[in-house]
Design a protein that fits this description.
The structure is a homotetramer of 404-residue chains. With 404 residues, chain A is of the alpha+beta class. Chain A folds into 3 domains: 87 residues, Acyl-CoA dehydrogenase/oxidase, N-terminal domain (Butyryl-Coa Dehydrogenase, subunit A, domain 1), CATH 1.10.540.10; 113 residues, Butyryl-CoA Dehydrogenase, subunit A, domain 2, CATH 2.40.110.10; 150 residues, Butyryl-CoA Dehydrogenase, subunit A, domain 3. Chain A contains 12 helices and 10 strands. In chain A, β9 and β10 form a beta hairpin. In chain A, α1 runs parallel beside α3 and α3 packs across α7. The longest helix of chain A has 37 residues. Chain A is globular. In chain A, 60% of the residues are buried. The model of chain A has no long low-confidence stretch (mean pLDDT 95). Chains in contact: A-B, A-C, A-D, B-C, B-D, C-D. Chains A and C meet through α8 of A and α8 of C. Chains A, B, C, D: This is Acyl-CoA dehydrogenase family protein. Chains A, B, C, D: It comes from Salinirubellus salinus.
């Protein structure tokens, strides 16, 4: 299908597609057959990605990336999503990708040198430390309890975070903390760069969770107990933490949409291949209409995701906030891709549940998408508020109804 | 929401929006309150539409229209769909709109003068006579049994049609008939212009059906018994009837998508207004989350329709067939708009079922959309065939699975 | 399928089945072909129903019925539902059936003689006047504004009702009015028997609505303006109106479930017959797997309705309130039957939309079921309240989660 | 909710409920907090189950069970399903439970002594070896390729099986093999008892799959290469293997329905507890209507499962085949329980994905249910065939439609 992307976008996606087919997916197949996941393997994949000009395309050249426009990178994200190894290989893997984006956007030159460039190079890793345990910040970030208090030219961070992706492996964290407890949290919260080995940072424990089979990555519980950082550790503007988080999230949600669309598309390809190969009741499964049509539905909805995401990206590129189209894309994509993966498993029967195919790993991994980066319910809340805006309510429509 | 339409498209839509709000919807309200639907009323609406420059925008100026590009007219179609009277008022009403399009596309100058121009002017009406009774052409048009046989310089048409929209009111029909019975139907069928008062044309009876409450239009059963027409009655190229029908249907399906999207959007507006007004269990219905979120889902899916339709229109404007994106848009739009209307009724409770609001009429009218212009199942068939194309089947994906 | 009903229930259902197949459905077919609906036709159907021992089976013999137990009549209701004429023919038609039930349950001997017996005989008709216009009682009956004030040995009724089924045709109404405005409405509302020709009763107008094609029945707006009735007009116990309404509704909801299950089953039978007859793309529609499986899903869900309804009826027969199983049955049945009818139309294509088959009428009629007798949302509210009962909340389940 | 079970059934379920709440679920909580799963732990749980009279209730007392009727054990199965450890603890765990049932039903006394009694005692384990790799038996068991050939008074088994549950741990297998290759497979296949250490049995490898987190159980690929067993190893009647498999499957499908219903119910309890505890946007999640209503829907559908399963069990107890009600129960239960678990995760947000709660394990485990014991598609095939039976097709319904 033709999506009217720019020539740059197409070339990038084409290179990514070849890289996936020729390198990443065969590597994944080895892992599924029992091979080990190692740091060396990651390094090899990344070296090959650099070689093929598909490494960190979204970051400026001066910091080690390829300097592409956001909209031009989207199709590559879809390619990358076709294997759980793809984003890692092309260095567009969460949470590092979002963290790089944030530092590039609002960081100082010193911060970029210290954190962004080694991140891009793949020498270090990072975590985004926002979510807190029960009773703290979650879907409702206003409930944040972690604080950063100014003490001379230092900030002292105290708090308790949970579900920090890559928490156990990170070299540093972007920590979100309230810096003006009298203000509304949206106007009194800031971001800080905190080294993982700073005094007072305690990785309580990694939280085992769905989706750790292919890439053994933690989601850690972390305590910040009187952690002191210098003024230079403030990332972006004081008290603007939520604004920066939103700047990070808009594009990040769209890149997630594309990545998971890639996953769903691959899942359907596997299902179609299996159906084409497997016979039952006197014909191949591919000839059975019910699942054929179910797949047609999914292809249709994935097509919808691709047109919605491009629309939202165009809004963002035009400098608009694009909150509603982003929320719509995200909630629609998350539900669609989860269902597409689920359908693919069903079409493959027993093999679909086995870890010989990547579908079982996809099944576990995709489940997060309806929860992270704004749960379905949070996005629906935003969309509904807009839908019930007074401009959309027209009392004259009820004129014919009897009333008291 | 901004959809990046051209300035021409926006201005046209804006004028249409004002026309709907100021003229058409108030007229509809009068009808729902018990006022009569008359020819005079249609004439008045059309005069006002001409006045406001929203009349027949899709037809060339030389034939009485406004000469707009297809893609530029789409947003107007959405506006027109907000009332069942809208398309009639702006003279973009089926089946005349599609028939005008076909004659404009493949008709001779004489045919345009005789049929197209009076159609545009609203002086005559037309039917598209394709569907046949049981055992004849329906979802599978290959089963067509109506024939046209050359006899000297005349064609003799024999057949039995059903479900000809506007059959009882039409001044002429575009009749689809097999002209080469030895060829595959797709390569041996032609279109003919047949006057309703020609000898041998018998309107057997109008078929009562869902959706006749607002505009009393028939879907007739018609027999063609030795109907003789001259060679000049052939519309387009001999034996190319199915190609012409497809040329008609691609854009027509997209305009239907937009019209029904307009209907669904209006339905949701009515629902939101009712919910904002009505209290139950200590708050307004608008404050009840379950239906708010259900509406958010619908708004999301309607947004998806709008981005998909524009994508497909762009393909068509680029001269591509766009069969898959059109089928995807159509099947997705038809299901979405039916559900949106149904949800709107549910949100309005009793009043939703009453004919004091337009929702009950919408409910009946929208049901046709999943059946006409290709039933859901026909579009899924096309989409699935494309999805299972051999390029999408990759045997290497099964390499890890045991086999015999 | 065997549902372990009593021998009485089976025999009754078998007679009803024969009556439907041999008399009612052929009569319906005549109406769909254009025949007129007349009072004589109703009388003939009822005479035949009496002859075949399927007339008013749920009412005691002393009042003109057959004296069957509630649970034994359920399978007959399913049979009756197979045509929109069935309930009328067997005199189990709403709202008269529910009104008969209420008078039989809580009426005085005099009331039974004056109202119940002529109702059973089909000599008079009745309405249940509860719902009020916007701002009054609807889904939330606590908002009731109609009052009945004691004045000597008379009650004076003032109020404004809407959506009173059969309002225009009724000989009397059961009117629900607040009799103790200081009490909570659930404890201060009563039922009254009010003759339609009493002074102060004004039928403002019938409200046109979905579903009037087969049986032309009104849903009227009615004003009660200082209507005086004697003490004997109080139906049941003073201030117990809501309790009586619930006694009426529990069983009535189950009988509705069975009626609409019958409608859905008939709709599917028509769809299967059409699919068996109609060919497209080289095989009959019955051989196309996607719709076959969609029908299998519906059959499954209708089977679920039948087992749920029987379970709830058993609870009611044991003297329990059965509020949760009744609400579950109702909301599940309403959604299932609407979808089954909708699917049947889709399977029939164009003919499904025509009024030559009963499906279009079913489509309009079934839409009410998710709204009347408690909208979906009201039942879900009740079910959710029960589900979140503190007995179902177990804090120890969260023991492993981190917290502040 | 009251389901009209027998007093025996209720007492059994009540004891099981207490056992689950007091012993099994706390043990599960320890495992989720990081404790090890050991054989000792299983032994302790089973000792306690014996103590509390909830051990192997479905097997005759003479073979070590409790001798309860099938229908009376169903509610216990629901209790057991509330934790993945429950079935193991009460010795009603698949595939041993089904294997015990089969041996009890068709085995000889010697077979019962050798295999059934140690199974009941928990001294040995077993596998059911039916499914084969690609191109062999799967959803369509007619495609079976494994054979058993008579050679003197021995049978020689040759074949390749896959997906044999507990394959790596089993002490013996029930192997399904074709014994009359000229007959239709349904009439030429037999069951054999094969010791795991017999010559020619090769466990190729365990197949990693979804759902191994709580109980590390294999699904192995196995080759049978000229495995010789004596005549006494034939289980049941020669060539009646499929009949025996069906006898096993009917009740087994219903017990699975109840087990997974228990899992879904527990998942919803956890979700409700979390929602009751967690706040966001100014109220607890339990007060948010959208998810409350989604839970109400699930409770409704689980209620439907319970009434359907009891209906089917009653049919089976009456000696009927009950194929349709069993298939309906199974496909409906599998989809409902999967959705209930998925919803519960969504309601819990991040914690729902963590393995601190059992939901993530449930999510993986429940995915199998729509595939094993007849995939959805296989059951729909059976239900559809019944629905389109000629008795359900009535040509007179189309009498009003025009035709050629």
């Amino acid at each position: 299908m033709e999506y009217h992307d720019s020539p740059e976008a197409r070339e990038l996606a084409e290179r990514a597609r070849a890289f996936m087919d020729e390198v990443v997916i065969p590597t994944e197949r080895d892992l599924l057959a029992g091979g080990p996941f190692t740091e060396d393997l990651v390094d090899e994949l990344r070296a090959e990605a650099r070689e093929r000009d598909v490494y960190c395309p979204q970051i400026d050249e001066e910091h080690g990336g390829m300097g592409h426009e956001f909209a031009d990178v989207l199709p590559l994200f879809e390619e990358a999503g076709r294997s759980l190894l793809g984003a890692t290989a092309m260095r567009v893997d969460a949470p590092d990708e979002g963290n790089m984006h944030t530092i590039e956007l609002v960081g100082t030159e010193a911060q970029k040198e210290e954190y962004l460039e080694p991140l891009v190079a793949g020498e270090i890793r990072s975590g985004f430390s926002m979510t807190e345990p029960r009773d703290g910040a979650g879907s409702d970030p206003k409930m944040m309890r972690t604080t950063a208090t100014k003490d001379g030219d230092e900030w002292v961070i105290d708090g308790h975070k949970w579900w920090t992706t890559q928490g156990d492996e990170a070299d540093f964290f972007i920590v979100m903390a309230r810096t003006d407890v009298d203000a509304h949290p949206y106007e009194g919260t800031s971001l800080f760069l905190v080294d993982a080995d700073a005094d007072g940072v305690e990785i309580v424990e990694p939280t085992p969770h769905l989706g750790q089979s292919m890439i053994p990555e933690s989601h850690a519980e972390i305590r910040y107990d009187g952690v002191r950082v210098s003024e230079d550790a403030l990332l972006g503007t004081e008290n603007m933490g939520f604004v920066h988080a939103q700047q990070r999230l808009g594009p990040a949600r769209l890149t997630h949409c594309m990545r998971f669309t890639g996953m769903a598309t691959r899942a359907l390809t596997i299902a179609k291949t299996y159906m084409d190969d497997r016979e039952a009741f006197d014909s191949t499964l591919a000839e059975k209409q019910a699942q054929r049509y179910a797949i047609a539905d999914m292809e249709t909805r994935l097509h919808a995701v691709r047109t919605m995401v491009r629309h939202a990206a165009r809004q963002i590129s035009a400098g608009e906030e694009a909150r509603i189209p982003v929320s719509m894309s995200k909630v629609f994509a998350a539900n669609t891709t989860q269902e597409a993966v689920d359908l693919s498993i069903q079409c493959c029967g027993g093999p679909g549940m086995s870890r010989k195919l990547p579908l079982a790993d996809f099944y576990d991994a995709v489940r997060a998408f309806r929860i992270v980066d704004g749960a379905d319910e949070v996005h629906k809340r935003v969309i509904a508020r807009d839908a019930f805006d007074e401009a959309n309510v027209r009392p004259e429509e009820l004129a014919n109804l009897p009333t008291f």
